[in-house]
Amino acid sequence: MSEPLLKMRDVRIDGFTDERWHEIIKGVDLDLHHGEVLGLIGESGAGKSTLGLAAMGFARPGCRLTSGEIVFDGMDLMAMSERRKQKLRGTRIAYVAQSAAAAFNPAHTLLKQTTEVAVRTGVMGQKEAEEYARELYAAMDLPNPRTIGERFPHQVSGGQLQRAMTAMAMCAKPDLIVFDEPTTALDVTTQVNVLAAMRKAVKDYNTAAIYITHDLAVVAQMADRIKVLRFGEEVEEQPTAQMLSDPKEDYTRSLWAVRGIEKPGESGPDKILELKKITAAYGTTPVLTKVNIAVPRGKTVALVGESGSGKSTTARVVTGLLPPVSGQVIFDGAPLPPELKNRSKDQLQKIQMIYQMADTAMNPKQSVGEIIGRPLRFYHGMSGTAQRERIAELLEMIELDPSFADRLPGELSGGQKQRVCIARALAAEPELIICDEVTSALDQIVQEGILKLLLRLQKELGVSYIFITHDIETVRAIADEVVVMYQGEVVEQGLKEEIFAPPHPDYTELLLSSVPQMEAGWLDRAIAERRELVDSRGEVATD
Amino acid sequence: MTNTTDETYSAAAEVAQVRVRRTWRERAWLSLKKAPPTAWFGMVVIAIYLVVAILAPLIAPYGEAQVFPAPYAPWSAEHLFGTDQIGRDIFSRLIYGARNTIGIALATTLLAFTIGGGLALAAAILRGWTDQILSRIVDVLMAIPSLIFALMLLSIFGASVVSLILIIAVLDSTRVFRLTRAVAMNVVVMEYVEAARLRGEGTGWIMRREILPNILPPLVAEFGLRFCFVFLTVAALSFLGLGIQPPTADWGSMVRENASLIQFAQYDLKAALTPLLPAAAIALLTVAVNFVVDWFLYKTSGLRDER
Questions:
Q1: What sections of the protein cross the membrane (chain B) (predicted)?
Q2: Residue B252 near residue B277 (C-beta atoms within 8 A)
């Protein structure tokens, strides 16, 4: 094969934390040829983004390139002046970030921002660049490619913005694009379209790409080759098909096998919670319309749907933070007062909540012991030795050492934080726990640990869960019953097996077919199926 | 940093990086050691002022209101900085002045923080009408120039120490309210506050335990600055004759009483310096407090102005 477009040899990068330099990339090699897509995967902190930026000769503030060789198209980026590198970025190498909303300037139209780099660096004239941008919009499957460029960033949806950002990156006809988790912030139903558009564009224009993600199923669709990183070192690199069917390293296999939890769905006649014809609104904006949901005692009901479908609002109604406009919340056979302040301590104690971001769910100034100890004292009047013993017991229950009681949240890892939040909920001895996207901010291996813990606790304590998630794999792992929500209405509720077995209502079908699968060629099939669905229905609101 | 790998924790992939826990005292000492010279200067000056203020009766050679037969005596071994217009020892009065001015300023600042901070936290937590009403009252109070407003109120209620403290505290609490409300708003939306509310905690508990510890750094910095402003306001009011009343020694009124001496600079330079001494005392303390606050802000908020 000819000389690669990008060649990295023994690249080492230091990061500055705790007033010291630590090596965060420990000598990684990388080759990328024209028109090739390389997937970089690994858990958070593995150094994926740092390596991706290094491919542009860039180290973000607080990082420095210490040694190694980065050669782009025969040019040594390590030796190049900052000025020349800057010129290279944007024209020859482009970058697509995770949050398109944060990367666009809200004060300018999409078209102006798309063409800016190409025009400023003199690759194209303004007219020519605009024409090319429209062509790219069409290639990215954006609606009305001729006119969408006239809009401002807030006038298009998140998925469209992410595609516009890819168009922006491609406008100066770069040879290499670095995609850094470009679809992580999107709903699954939107993600499929964006992925397909990106892949098509990369292929059509013969651009090389580095695709960074933590989602294996996504990378399986996008990449020709996959490189697995861990703790700043390469674990292994192989062509995608081979990597999926036959990973060499144990670590890779563990990444692949993570979604192995399976449990049959069960229901029960005894309902711990019932929502009856709940209609809720923020001000005058209706969010929920006549929602009926029943949660069997000791079971798990998963609420699924894309963002804005009313999942979290349902939780707010149950907890009393948002009194419904009409309808009733019945808990353990008796109606709950709609407003939080009218509920008794007893009623509050029985419903607990676990949040998505464990970081913001715990007071950073309180130790783990104080955090878990407060509900003990508040609800059960426990103090002194009894409280200490119970805290140790709870910590053991969530598989943490009792010595953790003295730590502050800032001294815990993401998974440990979420475990402490679980312990805090358990300390109240609730009958129902609402889990709001509790695993979506965590790495896959950690996710599995949390889900297993929740399942074990349910078995031991008989607690019921309402599990809010947009991740169908999580639902498969933990739910008994599933409630599919769309635009503030319940599309269907039933046992997991029934919901997942065809035939589905259209929206459920769309949702299920959007979940990336770990097999080659899934994306093409999904897109084809979606076309049929759209054709048969006339319209599908995905964007 | 140590890697603790021997935990009884199932998810083996999760290796927690745990800092060596230091006690509060060790941490304070560590950051003190790294403090820049300006901060050290500020802290030393503040410490000296505090010692002087607390031990005033022991340090001062004469009493606060003790009158000697010779008014406007020149600087001498007997009267270090001479005597004032009715024959009181200026050095002694400077020392007592530290006690009075700093004491009143401190009391006023504390009161301002209690009123402004407490109401601001309540406004941030309860929001709705409480917030609207309180914020609008604060807006109105802030719209009136505070020194003129204070002058007016003092002439209405009479210039006693109590009314001085109350009036300045209320006027300054508006600024404390603004700051506290703004920083508390960022914390109120955190999920741990919602969690506390869902648990059924009262407003007082949420204020003290959930919010206050997390907004302390900007408030401590503001306390230092606010103290300076109050201190200056008290001095200004005294200079205008409506602040601390004689015979209580106070730096502001001392400047006023001896102000005419500055005209004698061509005959006796030392005498001309006399009215500048209390003014310098005011200036030095203000600068010192600002140095310390700057360093504190630099440490806690990550505000870096170099680079």
A1: 39-60, 102-126, 146-171, 223-244, 276-298
A2: no
Q: Do A445 and B13 touch (CB under 8 A)?
A: yes
The pLDDT value given to residue A267: 81
Same domain, A360 and A277: yes
DSSP state letter for A357:
-
Token pair recorded at residue B167: 């009036």
CA distance A341 to chain B (A): 8
Looking up residue B245, the CATH number of its domain turns out to be: 1.10.3720.10
What is the structure's pLDDT at B303?
Answer: 55
Tokens of A174: 């770069």
ipTM reported for the complex surpasses 0.95: no
Q: Give yes or no: residues A163 and A293 share one domain.
A: no
Q: How high is the pLDDT of residue B42?
A: 92
Q: Does a structural domain hold residue A256?
A: no
Q: What is the C-alpha to C-alpha distance for residues A365 and B188, in angstroms, rounded to an integer?
A: 15
Locate the chain B residue with the closest alpha carbon to A371. Answer: B192
Percent of chain A with pLDDT over 90: 18
pLDDT given for residue B11 in this prediction: 38
Distance from CA of B301 to the nearest CA of A (A): 15
How far apart (Å, rounded) are the C-alpha atoms in residues B278 and B109? 21
Task: Answer whether A415 sits within 8 Å of B200, measured CB to CB.
Answer: no
CB contact under 8 A, B21 and A363: no
Chain B: give the shortest CA distance to residue A417, in Å.
Answer: 11
Residue A356 lies in a domain: yes
Rounded to an integer, what distance in angstroms lies between the CA atom of residue A444 and that of residue A440? Answer: 9
Give percent helix, percent strand, percent coil of chain B, each to the nearest 5.
70, 5, 25
Range of the domain at A33: 6-51+66-221
Q: Cis omega before residue B247 (within 30°)?
A: yes
Residues A162, A511: Cα–Cα separation, whole Å: 20
A265: DSSP letter: -
Count chain A–chain B contacts defined by CB atoms under 8 A: 84
Instruction: Please list the alpha-helical segments (H only) found in A92-125.
Output: 100-103, 110-120
**Calpha distance B125→B94 (Å, rounded):** 45
A353 to B195: CB separation less than 8 angstroms, yes or no:
yes
On whether the CB atoms of residues A478 and A263 are closer than 8 A, the answer is yes
Phi/psi region, residue A57 (left: phi>0; alpha: psi -120 to 50; beta: rest), is: left
The total of other beta-carbon atoms located within 10 Å of residue B171's CB is 21
CB contact under 8 A, A399 and B9: yes
pLDDT one-digit tens code per residue, A322-334: 899 999 999 988 8
**Based on the structure, what is the number of domains in chain A?**
2
Q: Is pTM, for the whole model, over 0.95?
A: no
Q: A214 vs A43, A53, A356, A448, CA distance in Å?
A: 6, 16, 18, 14
What CATH number corresponds to the domain at position A451? 3.40.50.300
Q: Is residue A355 part of a domain?
A: yes
CA gap A192, A469 in Å, rounded: 18
The rounded distance, in Å, linking the Cα atoms of B122 and B125 is 5
